[in-house]
Amino acid sequence: DIQMTQSPSSLSASVGDRVTITCRASQGISDNLAWFQQKPGKAPKPLIYAASKLQGGVPSKFIGSGSGTDFTLTISSLQPEDFATYYCQQYNTFPRTFGQGTKLEIK
Amino acid sequence: QVQLVQSGAEVKKPGSSVKVSCQAFGGTLSSYTLSWVRQAPGQGLEWMGRIIPYLGVTDYPETFQGRISITAERSTSTTSMELSSLRSDDTAVYFCAHGYRFGPDLDSWGQGTLVIVSS
């Protein structure tokens, strides 16, 4: 199975900050990577697919990049609604696997 | 965009089975995939498997092989996930998600179904 490792596991930031979350795959997955945002008690919300393509309705403050094994999600100008848990997920091979999540908290 | 509506919460005894359903509105299952993902309390996301409804083809991770069955009823755009031999650590919220056969396969999500396994 492909292991997806996110870092950091948690992150404190202030409104207006820019943050970056990284996701590393244990083997190459091309650009077959998605990012999700999840708030407590809610289903994950797709943000990005194909490593860098925004899902419909997702603001351009979310930027995904990377290919192969190393990926990043950058969120600029943090707003209160951005504080949530973020997951990466590879859909290159079966079984699909997720990173362990990065909890973004308000400082 | 497809909207997915899942069945309601369940409380089950250890050793029993649970079947959770997911109905698609505003689209069909005919050329897409339907996956299941679960999340134990306070934990991350775990992929449980998927079906390509128009082919009837399923993929399951080894961790669930022999214990899970995902089926699809094309006439009602409904897919179901049945998990057997339930244990307390199967207590989780179970999500269905709609996606693409050759592409992102978790593109639209259901609201989640809480399954509690307790004696």
Protein architecture, described:
The complex is a heterodimer of chains A (107) and B (119). Chain A has 107 residues and is mostly beta strands. Chain A is 0% helix and 50% strand. In chain A, the strands form two sheets. In chain A, strands 2, 4, 5, 6, 9, 10 and 11 form a seven-stranded mixed sheet that branches. In chain A, strand 9 (85-90) and strand 10 (97-98) form a beta hairpin. Chain A starts with a strand and ends with a strand. In chain B, 0% of the residues lie in helices and 50% in strands. Chain B has strands at residues 3-6, 10-12, 18-25, 33-39, 46-52, 57-59, 68-73, 78-83, 92-99, 108-109, 113-117. The relative contact order of chain B is 0.32. The model of chain B has no long low-confidence stretch (mean pLDDT 94). Chains A and B meet through strand 4, strand 5 and strand 10 of A and strand 5 and strand 10 of B.
Offer a concise description of the structure.
By secondary structure, chain A is mainly β. Chain A has no helices and eleven strands. In chain A, strand 5 and strand 6 form a beta hairpin.
The amount of helix of chain B comes to under 10%
Tell me the β content of chain B.
over 45%
Class from secondary-structure proportions of chain A = mainly beta
What's the Cα radius of gyration of chain B? Answer: 13 Å
Q: Compute the separation of the termini of chain A in Å.
A: 36 Å
Unreliable runs of chain B, pLDDT <50, ≥5 residues? none
- Quickly count the helices of chain A: 0
Poorly predicted regions of chain A: none
User: What is the oligomer described by this structure?
Assistant: heterodimer
Number of extended strands of chain B: 11
Q: What shape does the CA trace of chain A take?
A: globular
Number of strands of chain A: 11
Query: Could you give the order of the helices and strands of chain B?
Result: EEEEEEEEEEE
Task: Please tell me what the overall shape of chain B is.
Answer: globular
Mean pLDDT of chain B: 94
Main sheet makeup of chain B: 7 strands, mixed
What are the secondary-structure elements of chain A, in order, as H or E?
A: EEEEEEEEEEE
Distance between the termini of chain B: 40 Å
